[in-house]
Amino acid sequence: MSSPGEYYNSLPPITKAYGTLCLLATTLAQLGLLAPIHIALIPDLVFKNFQVWRLITNLFFLGGFSINFGIRLLMIARYGVLLEKGPFERRTADFLWMMIFGSLTLLVLSFIPFFWTPFLGVSLVFMLLYLWSREFPNANISLYGLVNLKAFYLPWAMLALDVIFGSKIMPDLLGIIAGHLYYFLTVLHPLATGKNYLKTPKWVYPLI
């Protein structure tokens, strides 16, 4: 069995970076070194006070240390890794572009008052889950050892559980919307028309 350090070093780069930043943000908040309100997505402060960092920092906060936080971090470690080492293997730039496109989609949606949520980290994680479920729809999944279901239904089952246990539905729903838009533009639409309008821009490649 590999050590925690060996496991961490084996993680693919984008998933490792995102998971690390999420863990760092929550740790700093838990230690009182970072006030979540200072990194939340608050449109008035972004546009009127030019606090543009909020457009990025809100994506890395998954809430305080809790069971829900642990589940979201494990979702990054599982579904982010399975995507980056599976359909996106040797396509690190494409995976990074998927994360960037998803983040931009979530930000645009969140500026609509009905969809607004101060932290989009959970939504971005849920997008990874949704995309994995579309890439491997027939995989058999055991949900907490209680129910067996096909991977295609996993995002909806997780959303239902969040509602049952009192979590807000909007972050999960935003992740599903962003994930489906990306999947439609990069898989479904090209299959139907032969045209891909969401190719990875050239400026992304130097970032990896």
N-to-C SSE series?
HHHHHHHEEHH
Largest sheet descriptor: 2 strands, antiparallel
Fraction in helix: 55-70%
Instruction: Describe the strand arrangement of the main beta sheet, using strand numbers.
Output: 1-2
| Computed structural class | mainly alpha
Helical segment count: 9
User: How many beta-strand elements?
Assistant: 2
State Rg.
17 Å
Q: Unreliable stretches, pLDDT < 50, 5 or more residues?
A: none
Report the mean per-residue pLDDT as an integer: 93
Determine the N-to-C terminus distance.
30 Å
Could you give a quick summary of the protein structure above?
The chain is built from 9 helices and 2 strands. A hairpin with a 3-residue loop joins β1 and β2.
Can you characterise this structure?
This protein is mainly alpha-helical and 208 residues long. 59% of the residues lie in helices and 4% in strands. It contains 9 helices and 2 strands. Strands 1-2 form a two-stranded antiparallel ribbon. Strand 1 (140-143) and strand 2 (147-150) form a beta hairpin. Helix 2 (13-30) runs antiparallel to helix 5 (67-85) and helix 6 crosses helix 9. The longest helix is centred in the last third of the chain and has 24 residues, at 170-193. The protein is globular and about 45 Å long.
